[in-house]
Each structure stands twice: as structure tokens, then as C-alpha cells.
Write a structure and sequence with these properties.
CATH architecture: 3-Layer(aba) Sandwich
Strand content: 15-25%
Number of helices: 5
Shape: globular
Oligomer: single chain
Order of helices and strands: EHHEHEHEEH
Largest sheet: 5 strands, parallel
CATH superfamily: Dehydroquinase, class II
Number of strands: 5
Helix content: 25-40%
Strand order of the largest sheet: 2-1-3-4-5
Number of domains: 1
Structural class: alpha/beta
CATH class: Alpha Beta
Bound molecules: ligand CA2
Amino acid sequence: MKILVVNGPNLNMLGKREASYYGVKTLADIEDLVSDKARDLAVDVEFFQSNHEGAIVDYLQEAAQDAEGIIINAGALTHYGISMRDALTDSRLPVVEIHLSNIHAREEFRHHSVIADIAIGQIAGLGWQGYVFALEYLASHLKRS
Ligand code: CA2
């Protein structure tokens, strides 16, 4: 069982600035922690990060053919990335949306997510642990179905 873990714009900068919102771990640290959990759960994970919406669309079109679920922190594309949303929908895979910060407790423009209604669910505000919780949930969801 392969699960894609996709990160959008600026998440390659984690751990370098904005620690009060996003914590001190780098994206590589988070990917290592997710990989550890994946090993425990006996699932495969594949990581992808891009600052470009089109690159995320290209990746989803290709990688989703060979995967069973998607965990995505779309960064700011969360709030306006319609072509990314369309690619997620077209994948027909279960999606879990995650955010490090609580987008609902921040600026108004962050409250709306263009993917929330096509996701199984959303985790926001739990920091890097949100990625691990999303993986645990999605693995159990896929094993059930
Ligand atoms: O809380 C989240 O995970 C977000 O998806 C992060 C996005 C933000 O646009 C969303 O509204 C919520 C931004 C990620 C930017 O990450 C940085 C990390 C370090 C330095 C600069 C940006």
C-alpha cells in the first residue's frame, strides 16, 4: 500500500523561519518521522514537495496511478489552488488535508480551503504530529476498505 505525502509552496523552508507558526523541524525531519511511522504500519510512503502548482498537478497525475491515498499540506494553494483540487479529485484517491498551524485561528483568507470538501478530513494546528496522525488514520482507513 503506497501513500503519497505532498507538500506545497514554501514548505521546503520549514525549520528556517516562522517557527512560532510552523515549529522548528525541517521538512526532512518531518519526512523521517513519517517514514518511521510508515515502517511501523508496514505501508510505503512517497514524498513530494513543490513551490509550483503545475508541478504538483503533474506529480499527482502520474503518481496517483500507483498509489492508494494522499496526504497533502498544500500550503497557500490550499486557499486558491483550483487546478490542484481538480487533480486531487481526478485521482479518485482518499485525501487527508493537513496543516501545521490552525488555519481557522489565523487570518480570514486562510479559513477557506478549496480541498476541504473533497478530503476525508482535515488536521490543522497539531504541528508535525499532524502528518503522523494523518498517516495512521489513512492506513487504517485503507485497510478497512
Ligand atoms: O499551516 C500550514 O501548514 C499552512 O499550510 C502553511 C502555509 C500557509 O500558507 C497555509 O495557510 C497554512 C505556508 C507555509 C510556509 O512555510 C514557511 C516556513 C518557513 C518559512 C517561511 C514559510
